[in-house]
Design the sequence.
């Protein structure tokens, strides 16, 4: 059905708690991404994954880690969340890693860290 | 660095009016960037609206057009006559012409089309 699904859509956590954001895609895409967007800023790349267990840091990886154990799923983990990680997080996927390829995005997860 | 600057929103126009959303880019580490417009309709994820990978070329989709201008480093999005259904957030983005599929996004322009 060509879909990227993110869970949950909204999440409220307290500072210091662990956070797990999940993303799934049904297109067998090799490459998956996690972005965040803060007000007034563009989407910033946190991590990129080229396939199972093949992950690379993006522009702002500090404070995050990722896990990709199956091609269809890509998780973003915040160990001991901080208030400055309050943001909207977008997961995306694409067929390969070529720069002119179309990205498919999820709806986003709005995370508030209090 | 590599970055994208676009019209700050929100932008409100009336149905059937023309629209231009400005986008300029800086590609200091990318010799020949690919340029994109993505759109996020209410309640949905971002989706590709159009892309142009060759300087001087124009891309078009759903009545929108954008021309890749290397001289002015611009990729403005235009539509001659907007509809209410065009209300959305529009994102300009640039990416390198390489295997590393990283896109640099603008902050998005929220467009509201009034009936």
Sequence:
């Amino acid at each position: 059905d060509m879909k990227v699904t993110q869970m949950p859509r909204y999440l409220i956590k307290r500072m210091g708690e662990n956070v797990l954001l999940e993303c799934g895609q049904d297109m067998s895409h090799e490459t998956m991404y996690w972005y965040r967007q803060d007000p007034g800023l563009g989407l910033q790349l946190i991590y990129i994954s080229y396939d199972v267990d093949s992950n690379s840091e993006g522009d702002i990886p500090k404070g995050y880690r990722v896990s990709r154990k199956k091609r269809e799923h890509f998780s973003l983990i915040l160990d001991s969340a901080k208030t400055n990680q309050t943001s909207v997080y977008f997961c995306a996927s694409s067929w390969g890693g070529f720069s002119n390829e179309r990205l498919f995005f999820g709806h986003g997860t709005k995370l508030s860290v209090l | 660095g590599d970055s994208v600057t676009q019209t700050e929103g929100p932008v409100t126009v009336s149905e059937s009016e023309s629209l231009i959303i400005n986008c300029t880019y800086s590609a200091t580490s990318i010799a020949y960037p690919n340029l994109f417009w993505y759109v996020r309709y209410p309640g949905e994820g971002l989706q590709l609206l159009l892309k142009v990978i060759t300087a001087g070329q124009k891309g078009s989709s759903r009545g929108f057009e954008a021309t890749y201008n290397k001289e002015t480093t611009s990729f403005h999005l235009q539509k001659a006559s907007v509809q209410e259904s065009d209300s959305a957030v529009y994102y300009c983005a640039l990416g390198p012409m390489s295997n590393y599929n990283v896109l640099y996004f603008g902050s998005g322009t929220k467009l509201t089309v009034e009936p």
About this structure: The longest strand of chain A covers residues 44-51. The mean pLDDT of chain A is 93. Chain A touches chain B at residues 4, 31, 35, 37, 40-45, 48, 58-59, 90, 92, 94, 96-108 (CB under 8 Å). Chain A has no helices and eleven strands.
